[in-house]
Design goal:
- It is built from eight helices and three strands; from the N terminus they run αβββααααααα.
- By secondary structure, the protein is mainly alpha-helical.
- It folds into two domains: 116 residues, no CATH class; 44 residues, no CATH class.
Length: 181
Amino acid sequence: MKWSQRKKRLEASFADSVAGRVEVWSTRYRKPSDELGEAWITIDKERVWSMGTCTYYAEAHRAAQQFSGESFISSDRAQREVYWQARKQAEKSFANQGVCSLEDVDKALFGFLNLSINDPVTSDNPIIRAFAIIDGRFGRRRLLQFNDSDEHPLVRTLYRFRCRAEGIKLNSEPLNPADRP
């Protein structure tokens, strides 16, 4: 499915209170041989979250060097193997942190579009959970029962935005600036 079709289907599934205010974007840089890219989410035209292949590779390299103490550039085969094992270990932890490549974003969004509303809410993938929060099938009653205290920052951002858009006052956050002490 082309990105434009996926974007239309995804944004059409948003709750009425956030429709038109939350947008999902994606781009690919065609000059590099591996077509690196980036995806981002905007709320009221302001970028609130970015995910992309360049960021993913940079974080994977940094984490692998931190875990292994080795550089990929090393001429010693054993040291390079330690580096790659550390990189695989780092990449496994990325899903919970929301660090992902454009390919991961594409897979998550395509998967989200093919799930019932109960499955995305319990998904291990924070991207899928975040889009479940702003889905029209995720009703007001579920919003009131949802606890975002242990959630990924993207999930928490979209949850709090949706609650404000629905007029639900959160205990931890005033509904508008006039409500602040």
